[in-house]
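Quick one:
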Amino acid sequence: MAIAEPIPLVDLRAQYLALKDEIDAAVARVLDSGWYILGQEVRAFEAEFAAFCQPPDGAAPGCVAVNSGTDALHLALRACGVQPGDQVITVSHTAVATAAAIQLAGATPVFVDVDPETCTLDPKALADAVGPQTRAIVPVHLYGHPADLAPILAIAREAGIPVIEDCAQAHGAQYRGRPVGTWGDLGCFSFYPTKNLGALGDGGAVIGRDPELVERVRLLREYGWTPSSRYVSQVPGLNSRLDEIQAAILRVKLRHLRAWNEKRRELAAHYRTHLPAWVHRPVERPDSTHVYHLYVVRVPQRDRVQQHLRAKGIGTGIHYPVPVHQQPAYQAGAQVAHPLVHTERLAGEILSLPMHPMMTPTQVEQVATALADALPTIQS
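Output:
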């Protein structure tokens, strides 16, 4: 099969061109304003993103825009009282940012295994890992699929431990009809350019229903300053400000996010229909709404399959090739609660296929056909 044009894993340029007039006008508005940090664009985005995350059974959460998804997690952990010497339970099958944020807060990551079907934190593994030094739990809504929050929250509440949701890949995903990020004590988002809601640079946000926790994050975001005591730090904080240009761009893109998420779900359904039977498809739990930040399959002889697709002009990725607990930076400074059997096996099988809202069903079919053509390669 010949593909007329290469099919990229993501296509950020196509997304920009689709919104070029809106984005250019938003950037020009900021440049003309003369105010570039923590101004009206950031305040407006915080309100609009909070409204986007509003659950059907309650008010919109508070929202604090920050410099990155990593900072969102770091500040959320500190706001929840995590200190040096504490332990924070999370998964090793995640972007390294999850563990980096825990270490930035001075705590020790404690890794538990994942459910092999959803690739998210296994509540049974969590129950066995909670100990006297556990001060927080960070479930990761990986690839756009929510973690199984009800049993996770039950374990956390019984132990009196806060839950901080890592929603970096799950903007708009829902668990039992309610947006992720509004279940735990705080929810943390990344606006890295490739995310479902991505800036044209770095950015992040923390949302929460507890006004005191949200204000604690806001205090930490800018050196511990309050509006009435600027230049006087009330607590040790840091510089984690979202700039006005990125906020303005995010406001433009937020208006399209629901439609883009629906397009991703349509493309995922098309993949399910057309992929060959030997390719293990992503699983979506009946109580969850997957937003397919990534479309991650599992295949035998993954590296050979990836090479075959590359030769056909099809971009792929591996999210993630080395579990965090096996990376040099974390082998000494983290703990593994029990053997991470599923985590380690997934790392050798997973393959991210092209997925973005500018993609077409025809391209999905071309990827599926190329995968079908790979079968003789892996059988030889």
